Amino acid sequence: MPDDLLSGYRQSIDNIDAALIHMLAERFKVTQAVGRHKAEHGLPAADPGREERQIARLRRLAEEAQLDPEFSEKFLRFIIDEVIRHHQKLCE
C-alpha cells in the first residue's frame, strides 16, 4: 500500500533538489565570468574580506530562516573553495 503523504514529501524534496542544482549552475556561470574578469585584470583569485562578509551575511540569513548557521557556513565554504579553485585555474 503506497504512502501518499510520504510520496508527496519526496516529490517536494525532488523539486527542491532540482531547483538547488539549477541555482548552483547559474551561480557558477556568474562566478566563472568573475574569474575570467579577475584573470584578465590580474586580480587575485580569492578575496578573503568578501568571503568573510558573505559568510557572516549568510549565517544571519540562516538564523532568520531557522537553518543551522554552522551548516550554512560549511555549505558556503564548500562553494567558495570550489569557486576559488576555478579562478586559480583561469589564472594559470
Q: Could you characterize the architecture of this molecule?
A:
The protein is mainly alpha-helical. The chain has a single domain (4-91), classed as Chorismate Mutase Domain, subunit A. It has helices spanning 4-40, 48-64, 69-91. It starts with a helix and ends with a helix.
What is the end-to-end distance? 58 Å
Number of strands: 0
Q: Low-confidence parts lasting 5 or more residues at pLDDT below 50?
A: none
Rough shape? elongated
Q: Helix content range of the residues, please? A: over 70%
Which key phrases capture this entry?
92 residues; mainly alpha; Chorismate Mutase Domain, subunit A; 3 helices; isomerase
Give the helices and strands, then pairings.
Blueprint: H1 4-40, H2 48-64, H3 69-91
Helix pairs in contact: 1-3, 2-3
Quick recap:
The protein is mostly helical and 92 residues long. The protein is 84% helix and 0% strand. The protein is built from 3 helices and no strands.
